[in-house]
Amino acid sequence: MESATETAAEASEAADPPPGTGPGPSQARSRPRRRVLIGSLAGCLVLGGILLCLPGEGADRTAPAPAPGAQAQAAVRTGVAAALPDLAVLIGEREARVRAHPKDARSWAVLGAAYVEQGRRTADTATQYPKAERALRTSLSVRPASNTEALVGLAALANARRDFPAARSWGEAARKAAPRRWTAYPQLIDAYTGLGEHEKAKAALDRLLELRSGPAVLARAAAVYRDRGWREDAAAALSDAAAGAVSPAERAACLERAGQLAWERGDRESALRHFQEAVRLDPDQRAAQAGQGRAQAALGRTSQALSVYQVALAKQPLPQYALELGELYESLGMAQAARVQYDLLRERVREEAAGGVDGELLLGRFEADHGDPAVAVRRLRAQWRRQPAIEVADALGWALHRTGQHEEGLRYAVIATDRAHDGTVRSAPYMYHRGMIERQLRRDGAARRHLAEALRINPYFSPLHARTARTALVALGEPSMAKVPKFW
Known about the structure:
Low-confidence stretches: 1-63
Number of helices: 26
Order of helices and strands: HHHEEHHHHHHHHHHHHHHHHHHHHHHH
CATH class of the domain at 360-476: Mainly Alpha
Strand order of the largest sheet: 1-2
Helix content: over 70%
Radius of gyration: 23 Å
Structural class: mainly alpha
CATH superfamily of the domain at 360-476: Tetratricopeptide repeat domain
Number of strands: 2
CATH topology of the domain at 360-476: Serine Threonine Protein Phosphatase 5, Tetratricopeptide repeat
Largest sheet: 2 strands, antiparallel
């Protein structure tokens, strides 16, 4: 028999919110439809821009903590990070439950969601994602109607696999089945963003904010604000999310995202503080460890950077980490060590593909700079047709440039950086790519402006390309005054 804590948590999450409990539409649309809650929180301090509660202050510390399985279940069902040990307990409990009760649709759905989270946290996608799909589809077969949990779980799995069309389909099916069930909207936001449908993502966020509040919603809002270029709003939302997080793993995930925001604006020290605190709270927070590698390298602490990257790769062998570490080795003149990482990247993408993960965007980026740019163009053209997101436009534009197709490459680079085309992300790499293409086309004024903007956003955006940007900017020199008309 299920515990009272578990049953209560399920009932609380499953129930549709009663009318009138969420803010009205007029509130959700204030100050260009942004909703950032910046409260004064008693007993809190600011660490690198993130509010953290002091022990013994604020919330009632005498209440018993939920059991690990119940805590992990609450996390996976609300789309927030769960601690790996708690996840293992939850998976063991749910596996035992479905063996004893194979018609328990809700337990199958929870088990599937837990497999998705475990695969994401460990990078064991080849094992965990197929298990997740089987569990979630079993839940649907047991209860085909009104099974929003399974539909949301399948949307989450598709997003984790970077299969955004499928994620949109599952998410929209979940929303249709239960329009006031809030858990479908975070998955729809991710799916719409991955498909370049930014207005739909913003509309889904507005609806989510009407239905729900709290750290999970604020963290999702921060991602949308960041994509729209509202960096201050994104940082404020993450501050509130971290302050309200109910578990160390959830708070660590918020701090990791805040560190990434700080890194994107070139604040090495703040980024490093966020990443270090995230790892202190959750030693399994490997994304924060990789973030430490980025920040340490930018601070000139090469040995520390190499060390933390290697730890992150050993525990969560994501191909993105292998690419970053390989480029760091290459920037240090260690070509053989870089090739080892690039070989690992290819191997990991193949392994992830066995779990259904779409690695075409990462492979395209890699081939453009370190392999065969023509192969990159073929991969990225197909990706653009299927999932025309801003990040794909940037990668395709750069790959076209690397094959000598500079004019066409510039068209995609403009999509990635021009606000008229939804290119509102303030990204140093995107600006660098556009500036280098314009330089090749002898559009010196535009090239100078965009290369300078890249270095202004983040002077340390890449151990390889930031150096190239500075060299190119110096070579362009100051604007020429030769053709300025004389009025005297």
